[in-house]
Amino acid sequence: MDQLQNIWMRMFENENKRDAWWHKKCTVYHQRGYEMLRVRGRGELYRILRYAPTAEHEYLMHLSILLKKRDHFYIEELSVPFVFNVERGNVVHHRICGISSADEETSPVLTREISPEAHQRFTYDRQAAVKYAERWWNSYNPAYRRFDVDCTNYVSQCLYAGGAPMHGAPKRDRGWWYQGDNWSYSWSVAHSLRWYLSGATQGLKGSEVSEASELELGDIICYDFQGDGRWDHNTIVVSKDNNGMPLVNAHTDNSRMRYWSYEDSLAWTPDTQYKFFHIG
Description:
single chain, 12 strands
């Protein structure tokens, strides 16, 4: 893996080859007034596709980025998918893989069905939700199915770890639940969870706030990257920076302590819309 890391670092150090993704990250750091003190990376090769006269290598680069602003330090971590080709012994077309913002399921308009158990008020354990988010940010709990687009499944697991009650099974278009090999749309689909949080009146529910700075640890941010009314992504707040702005964890492109706005993402556009939900 040392050779793989060296290949990536040569691309990183060469400004002419720096891709749009990294340029966006550096721009966001600069705008926020953060200094990048150290970048460490570890490559994990997971697939090689061979076809004459080239071979395509796909790998994850696990990045750890040490940031500083005045006396405040924090480490952002990411697992970023890359691919490069080898032709006649030379590395060519080294690039970040495409980032999908589409859920692998679509759902109808959800109806609300509240079980007797869900009528009971629950106390949201924010520390437990954040602890779970930190434990599984870059791995997958075998108790649940892993999705190719895993962001909402991961956030739902965090909410459940914080004590949010499930209800509605076995009807997939009702409630919020996971049971064996079945689950509600709201458990796994970003668009569905956004509308569920907005409409639920008992059990797991979200109170919408107007500013990201109003969120607490364990709260949820929803993202509509195209601004077209179709919600694409969800994250959970795990910390705040020294300006009181949320830092989030997420799956799909696994991220830890990432700045909430996601302007460094290739999925982000100037039309991006956000919803901020206070849980409880």
